[in-house]
């Protein structure tokens, strides 16, 4: 179902439970802090249910955070329909990043149009061309990016922190909904009339490219429908694979912890690797940074860790 109701300027917190209203307020504060302390900041909107919550919070707050999506060229029609719904509902001209045509042509010439079914390596190579490379361009020159990832979405995301330093792309990464449950997300969406992807009502809790996403059965892992032909420990697309520094648990966007857990990459097919490459959760090492360390200091610390 998607909505085209005009956005209310006022948030009706009476429709939300008290604990959820608290989470909403904390997420809204964090987003405002990010906009202030890490400009230019961007939100990578994957158009999933969580990302519609963040879209609503950013636009409702009038925050200076650019919202973009990656159009891999293989998205479901329902996801494109949601893009139009967002435009109607919010008047937002969603910025889209597409794959480089030369890389797509090279991949399909060498391997075939659906080669991602043939091996994990070819699947990851497809994600690299269609998602990871466009993401790099989308993040170039930014100081922070925001995702809708939640810790409860998959075993590979259990250790997901609220904020990290993404050393590959050289900027901060924030996950404001990390502690939200699936019930929280849907209570927000239904309570506010925010548009969402019609596939969610057909058994798709997690939605990616059309050929690589299917509905799940009751009791299955929320991401079981992604790359379902692979073993569970390889299921991530590469968008979140990068060395990351976890920055404590504070909900403030400013970096003020002296004790920082730096995390390094790992490519073995353990639970760690169940990301498409955009969201890999790496192994941690520990380092110490001065208070108020900026991005360049964090990058240097990570390189030397
Ligand atoms: S999800 Fe599938 S079609 Fe989309 S980029 Fe990855 S392998 Fe390619």
Strand neighbour order, sheet with most strands: 3-2-1-4-6-5-8-9-11
Portion in strands: 5-15%
- Biggest β-sheet description: 9 strands, mixed
Distance between the termini: 47 Å
Q: Report the C-alpha radius of gyration, rounded.
A: 19 Å
* CATH topology (fold) name: Rossmann fold
Shape: globular
Low-confidence stretches: 1-10, 255-274, 281-292
- What order do the SSEs take from the amino end to the carboxyl end, as H and E? HEHEHEHHEEEHEEEEEH
> What is the second-level CATH architecture?
3-Layer(aba) Sandwich
Number of helices: 7
State the fourth-level CATH superfamily.
HUPs
The ligands found in this model are: iron/sulfur cluster
Q: Tell me the name of the CATH class.
A: Alpha Beta
Count of spatially separate domains:
1
Write a structural description.
With 305 residues, this protein is of the alpha/beta class. The protein has a single domain, classed as Rossmann fold (3-Layer(aba) Sandwich). The protein is 32% helix and 14% strand. The strands form two sheets. Strands 3-2-1-4-6-5-8-9-11 form a nine-stranded mixed beta sheet. A two-stranded parallel ribbon has the order 7-10. Helix 2 crosses helix 6 and helix 4 runs antiparallel to helix 5 (120-139). The longest helix is centred in the first third of the chain and has 20 residues, at 18-37. Residues 72, 74, 116, 123, 126-127, 130-131, 208-209, 211-212, 237 line the site of iron/sulfur cluster.
